[in-house]
Amino acid sequence: MHHLRLEAVDCTLLIACAPGASPSLLYWGPKLGDHVSGEEVERLSLRQGMHGVADVSLPLSLAMEAGLGHPMVQGLAAHRDGKDWGSLFRVAKVETGSHSGKVVCRDEQTRLGLEYNFVLEPDSGVLRIASTLTNYGAAPLDLNEMATACLELPQSMTDIIGFTGRWTQEFGRERITRTSGSYVRENRSGRTSHFSYPALLLATADTNESAGEVYGLHLAWSGNHRLRVDTLTDGRLIASLGALLFPGEIRLAPGESYASPEIIGAYSDRGFSALSRKFHQHVRSRLLRPEMRAKPRPVHYNTWEAVYFDHDTEKLKQLATKAADLGVERFVLDDGWFGARRNDLAGLGDWVVSEAVYPEGLGPLVDHVTGLGMEMGIWFEPEMVNPDSDLYRAHPDWVLGVEGVDQVPFRTQYVLDISRKVVADYLFDRIDAVLRDHDIRYIKWDMNRDLSHPGGLDGAVRAVAQVHALYALLDRVRSAHPQVEIESCSSGGARADMGVLAHSDRVWTSDSNDALDRQNIQRGASFFLPPEILGCHVGPAHCHVTGRRISMAMRAATALTGHMGLELNLLTEREAELAQLKSAIALHKRHRTLLHDGEIYRLDTAPQHLASGIVARDKSEALFSFCYMTGDQHVLPGRLQFAGLDLARSYHLSLIWPEGWQAVKAPSLIEKLDLSGAGAVFSGAALMQAGMQLPHAQPETCLLFHLKAV
Ligand code: DGJ
Questions:
Q1: Is 446 a catalytic residue?
Q2: Is the pTM value of this prediction over 0.90?
Q3: Residues 55-76: tens digit of each pLDDT
Q4: Does 492 contact ligand 1 (Cβ within 6 A)?
Q5: Taking the CB of the first residue and of the last residue of the chain, which one, N or C, has fewer CB atoms within 10 A?
Q6: Contacts of 685 (CB under 8 A, 6+ apart)
Q7: Is residue 20 within 8 Å of 61, Cβ to Cβ?
Q8: Catalytic one among 84, 446, 450, 505?
Q9: Which residues are within 8 A (CB) of 43 and not within 5 positions of it... i.e. 6 or more apart?
Q10: Where would I find the H helices in 329-402?
Q11: 335 close to ligand 1 (CB < 6 Angstrom)
Q12: Measured from the CB, is residue 508 less than 6 Å from ligand 1?
C-alpha cells in the first residue's frame, strides 16, 4: 500500500506511506471523488531540485527527523549519548480500519520505532493524530523534542491565527500574515497557560466567519507545548504541534515508548464558524460523558466574588436561599472552607473542613442547599500546597523544585509532585473522604500557579509526568464518584484544552466576570469549545477585576448564552436587579436545550459590535445575540444578517432580551414590528440574505433575538 486514505463526510485524508519511504501528509482537504487516486495526487506533487539547494527536492515527513537532512525544520530530536541522532524512519507496515489507520515505521540504524495513528471522524470530519516513539536499542535514548506530527498544508494558507491572552483576558485572537521562516509559540508554564492556547488556525487571507478555507489544529495537552508554522525557502508550509520537553525529561530505557499528545485538527472551506462546529461536535460526541450530555447543565451559584475567604455558614445559607429563589440549581462553595485557609497565604493541601469556620462541619450547609433542591459543589486545588500548611510541614519533600534554586514566588504556593504515588494517594484519599462524607455533585478543580521549576525528588524533570498524573487523578476521582462533575479551572481559563476535557466536564472560562471582557473571551473560546462547557457567570455590577459598572441586562445577556451561573453577593444587590436576573435565569432555562445542543454561527460585524447565534441542528429554532460594545460612528448600525437558517422556511422573530427594551428615539424597527411583543414572521431567505436593520442602542447593550420556524 502506498497511501493511507481516510474519508469523512466532507474531507479526504491521504498519507503517503510507500514501504521503505518516510511517511508524509500528501493531501488533507475537500473530499476527493472515488475516481481520484493517491498516485494521481502524488504525481501532481512532483518537485524539482534547484541551484543553491539540494539537487533533489527534499522530501518532507510527518516526523521531520534529522535523517531527512532538511536545512530548516526538525520535528524529532533524539540521541543516545550523543550518537544515533540521525534517524530516518521508513514505513514498515500500514493498517487501515474504516475511519482510522496506523503507519508503523522503523529506523534499523538507530533502532527506533515510530508509529502514527490517524482517526478521521466520519461525521464531524475531525482528524486526530497521535504518535509513539519506541526505543528498540540496547541503550537509553534521550528525546529532546518530538512534534506529534509535522503537516504540510497548502501554501495558500497565508494567515496564521494564534490564541493568546493573560489572566482575565483569555482566548484573544491574533491574525498575522505568514512570513518566511518560523512562527513559534512555546509554553513552559507546566499548564495549558493563559498566554499560549495550544491551538492555531491557518487560513487564506480572505477567510472569515462564513466563507473561505481554514485548517484548525489543537493540541490536546494540558502542559508545556510548542506550536510551529514554518515557511520553507522552497515555499512549502509545515505546521507542527507537540509537547515541549525539558532537558533529560524523556529518557527511554530499552523497550520503552513515549506517546505524544493528540493533535485534533479540522478543515473547513466554509469559514471559521463551520470549523468551530466541527470542533464542537468532536467535544460533544467524543470527549463529554454521554450521561452528562443528557443532563441539563444546572445554573450555578458560585461563592467566590460574593464572600471570597469570609465564610460563615449563616451567610452562606442566606445566599443559598436567595439563589434558589432566583432559580439557581447548583451551589458551589469556593476557596476557603478547609484547614487554615482564611486567605491565600495558608492552608492549601490541608483538605479537612475547618472547624474554626464550620464548627458543625459542612453538613448543615450541604443539607440546607440540597433541602432547597439544589446540588452542592465544592472547590479544590489538589496540586498545590501553601508552605504554611500542615501538609508542607509534614512533607516538605513532596514539592517540585530545583535544588539550590529558590522557588519562584507565585500566589504563596508550591506545586506538589503528584506523579509520586504517595502524593496522589494522599490527594485522592482527602478528596474521596469529602465526597463520601457529603452529598456533593460537583468539583471546581483549580490550579493557580505555573510549574516554574518542575524538578522531582531525584532532580529529573516531572512536567510531562505531572500532566499524566493529573489526568490519572481526575479519572480516579471520577471512577470512584461517577455522579460528580468536575470543572477544570486554572486562574480562570488557563487549563481549558481538549486534553483535560477528556477527564472533566466543563471549564472555567475566565476570572473576569466583566461582561464586555466576557463577550470577547467567550467568542475566542467558542472557536474550539461548545457553549455548554464554558462557565459564564453574572458578576457584581461593579466588576471586581476591571472596576467597570455594567448593567444587569448586559451581564445577564452575556452569561446566559453559555453554562450560566451567578457570582455576586445576592444579599446586597438591588431588588429590581435581582428580579431582572430571575427573568434571565428563566429565559436561559427555556432555551437551554437549544443553547447547549445547537450549532454556532459567529457573525462578522463592525469592530464595535459582536454577534453570534446558536441554531438548532434541524434549523427549527435559533437564538442570536447582537452586542453593542462601544458607540457607533454612524447614526444607525447596519443590518443583521442572520445565518444558518433554512432559506426555504419562515421564522417567527422576536426580541427576547432585554425585557421591555425600547430603542433610543423609538420607534425603531423593534417597536414598528412589535418584536418585543407579538413578534413577526419572515422568510429565512429574507432574514439571511436581506438582513434586518438594527436599531440604535446605547453602548453595552446586548440584544437577544429568538427565531422559531413556523
Ligand atoms: C482562581 C479561580 O479562577 C477563581 O474562580 C477562584 O476559584 C480562586 N482561584 C480561588 O482561590
A1: yes
A2: yes
A3: 999 999 999 999 999 999 999 9
A4: yes
A5: C
A6: 647, 648
A7: no
A8: 446
A9: none
A10: 363-371, 390-394
A11: yes
A12: yes
